[in-house]
Amino acid sequence: MAQVSPNATPAYKRIQGAILRRIEAGQLMPGDAVDSERELAKIHYVSLMTARHALAGLERERLGQASSRSWDFCGAAENPFQQARELY
Questions:
Q1: What is the CATH number of the domain that holds 73?
Q2: Is residue 70 in some structural domain?
Q3: Is residue 19 part of a domain?
Q4: Strand order from edge to edge, sheet including 33-34
């Protein structure tokens, strides 16, 4: 795994940012499935727990919801784009 400098953005926030950029770009619409935790872990070179943490944070912000084997963008936030800008 790559070394991260002390001032770098935490990995879970980088994952959240990547997902939020996909939402802003219109690549993810309400009801669309996001990459699985395992896929996110592989894509971002992080542990499964870090990928899980990233999705859990987005779920807490009501931007998505975990289902049986995936995580779906639900667009439940009042204004997900404004919320994303405030978070990042």
A1: 1.10.10.10
A2: yes
A3: no
A4: 33-34, 71-73, 64-66
**How far, in Å, CA of 14 to CA of 49, rounded?**
14
Domain total of the chain: 1
pLDDT of res. 38: 92
Q: How far apart are CA 30 and CA 46, in angstroms?
A: 26
The pLDDT of residue 15? 95
**In sequence order, which residues have a C-beta less than 8 Å from that of residue 75 and are 6 or more positions away?**
23, 29, 30, 63
Residues 6+ apart with CB under 8 A from 40: 15, 34, 46, 51, 54, 55
Q: Is the dihedral of CA 2, 66, 21, 86 positive or negative?
A: negative
Q: How many helices, marked H, and strands, marked E, lie in the chain?
A: 4, 3
pLDDT tens figures, 27-80: 988 888 888 899 999 999 999 999 999 998 988 887 777 665 566 666 654 455
Report yes or no on 77 lying in a domain. Answer: yes
